[in-house]
Amino acid sequence: MSHPSFPGPRGLARHAWLPLAAAMCLILLAGCGRKAPDADAAVPVIAMPVKATDGSIAGRFPGEVHARYEMPVSFRMAGRLIERYVDPGEQVKQGQPLALLDPADPSQELSYAKAVLDAAEHRLLFATQQRDRDEAQFKQNLISQLQLQQTQDSYASALAGRDQARQQYKLAQSTTLVADHDGIITSRQAEVGQVLAAGQTVFGFAQSGEREVYVDVSESRVGDIAIGRAATVTLPALPGHTYAARVREIAPAADAQSRTYLVKLTVDHADASLQLGMTADVALEGVKSSDSAITIPATALFHQGEHPAVWVVQPSDSKLDLRPVTVARYGEHDVLITEGLKAGERIVMQGVHAVSAGEKVTPIAPPHPEDAPQ
């Protein structure tokens, strides 16, 4: 009787490799149909050539109208706020109530102020009696001139201490916050029911009267400005109105973030139409103009550490180069460049944080025409 023959170990191994070999061939064939990725493929970026701007713009700066005196308003004692009588934007008069503390909260401070006043009045009574007695004895030549002067000094000190304690007691009795001057409430910093510390801000306050315009000047332009420099102020909200102004103050140090210097200008003959918070265009006299001024969108500005820079597309190989620039003015939507760029050079307008130096790119236009530089 014949038995079926079975393959040996070597035959089994040979048959087991056949499906695996077939699968590897299919993978290799599929791979041959694909194109290897190009390491030098250009990345599309929104980039446009820049245009020269009128150099006279370098002497103009965007600004904002402020009050000459702006200050926080607060209670001089701690307590719980139970009432607010005004809101931001309201005009207030001197002596007008603004807010109220819970009268029960300052009772301990009031008791302490009363005790201090009682002690001061007792010291004053003793000093008065001593002064009267020494003056009588001096007339009889019983004490020296020096001793009389010391007694009189003690009396004057006790009188000043009593007046100070009386003032503190008066303040402790008052739980109503009142306006010290005519002005406008610019902000609210505390809510009803909130427990306030002594001196904690309740309102922002702008005093009536003088008006100023604040502008930010780059470090490359601040050297052209001096105290007393004349300027002309115009406002988009008040067409046809022009105000004369002069530089009153220049910040001694640059802002840590923007690296610009705050310049305050006092407006001459400011009228009621000059409202707080209005945007202004300030033309400073004597600021050097630039024949190579270029305006770029704010989205095109990149910071290399603390220094501003832009990504320039090299025309020879379409690769990116990070170039330092000098900013003359920061606007709301654009930036004025006076050094580092030339008209016609192509720069990255958007996505400046998604590219790197030496990267090859393909410049494309912005998806919205209004985003292109004017």
TrEMBL record:
Domain of life: Bacteria
Multidrug resistance protein MdtA-like C-terminal permuted SH3 domain: residues covered: 293-352
Location of the CzcB-like barrel-sandwich hybrid domain: 73-205
CusB-like beta-barrel domain ranges (all copies): 214-286
Stored Pfam families: Beta-barrel_RND_2, BSH_CzcB, RND-MFP_C
Similarity remark: Belongs to the membrane fusion protein (MFP) (TC 8.A.1) family.
Family matches, as PANTHER family: HLYD FAMILY OF SECRETION PROTEINS, MULTIDRUG RESISTANCE PROTEIN MDTA
NCBIfam families: RND_mfp
Official protein name in the record: RND transporter MFP subunit
Species, as recorded: Dyella acidisoli
Lineage: Bacteria, Pseudomonadati, Pseudomonadota, Gammaproteobacteria, Lysobacterales
